[in-house]
Amino acid sequence: MTRYVLRRLVQIVITFFLFQTLTFFLLYAQPGDIANQYLLNPNLPPDAAERLRQELGLDKPPHLQYIQYMKNFLTGNLGVSFTNYPRPVIDIIKERLPRTLVLFFTATIISFYVGFALGKVLAWRRGGLFEYGVTVVGVTLYTVFTPWFALMMIWLFAYKLNLFPTGKFVTPTLWQNAPVDANTVFGRMIYTGILGSVVAFVVYLLVRRLPPPTRNMSGILAVLAGLLGMVIPWVQSPLARYAVDILWHMVLPILTLTLISFAGTMLLTRNSLLETMREDFILAARAKGLPEKVVRDKHAARTALLPVVTSLVFSLAFAIDGGVITETMFSWPGMGLTLLNAVVQEDIPLAMGAFSFTGILALLAHLAADLLYAYLDPRIRYS
Known about the structure:
Elements: H1 2-28, H2 48-56, H3 62-74, H4 89-124, H5 129-142, H6 146-160, H7 182-207, H8 212-215, H9 218-231, H10 240-276, H11 280-287, H12 292-317, H13 319-329, H14 335-344, H15 348-376
Helix pairs in contact: 1-15, 4-7, 4-10, 4-12, 4-13, 4-15, 5-10, 6-10, 7-9, 10-12, 11-12, 12-15, 13-14, 14-15
């Protein structure tokens, strides 16, 4: 296993280098540059654009710019954003990457859980009215035009019912006299979420060791313990109302993403489970007289998880570029919207920084999927 991981890491480094090279020259091939955006200002002298190109290093040939960028990248310097000058790219990514990861990680986990649970039921009880109804609804949501569906969600829940805000990250009027900025509160919310997840995981492991009547409720008890672990630190906090405001803005994008995504996991789980149910070890488990729930959850579902987990890992890895549409529709200031604006405004350092994180997450996701395969299926071994 160690040799396999080392070999894959070398492959990841080579692939990432090729990805960086191709991305840089594709971005550079765009017509014009950032300096052209300032030519419309009549107060600038004629030589201002050329001087700006020299300051930003755009007057050098493409290959020299590429070599300089790679040298800086290897030292952890992603450059300075053209559109947010003189703010470093790494600072912008540190601010906006957590917003995208939290939004999409939450939506992906919820849609994965819902889709996997429904997929098991559809595979085990196929042919009924419930299967047809859920499948039609799921496929309709999965194939719907995302921008239109997001607009309909905003129109219904934000405009007509006035249950949620139409977009953005916070309510400006609430934060005018806030003692801290939104990034500080959001950072504390992330730490609280991690704490709640750890508590839920520990409770789940402990409850699983108890006798069967209590053990069957392990999932529910773990979720309740995790929620308490996330809520208790905010009960007496003066920043609680600001955290609630951020959560209020997150509900509608997460709901939209969940409704669009759960059907993919559901259908993949159903098909994978139907194939697994034909295996010999399922017949052997039934021949031993095991209950159908045990055969389904302990034997069939674990093997059926292989393609589903792969889909889950890859969906998390592509959260940045996948968030372009959703973040644009809800004006969510994350990496997706940042990447779109950077490409449109020809901000090459910022676009390269966003693409770099996408590439790193995607490559690591492939490695994580391979390792999870070996964990979930004892028949798989790497050398």
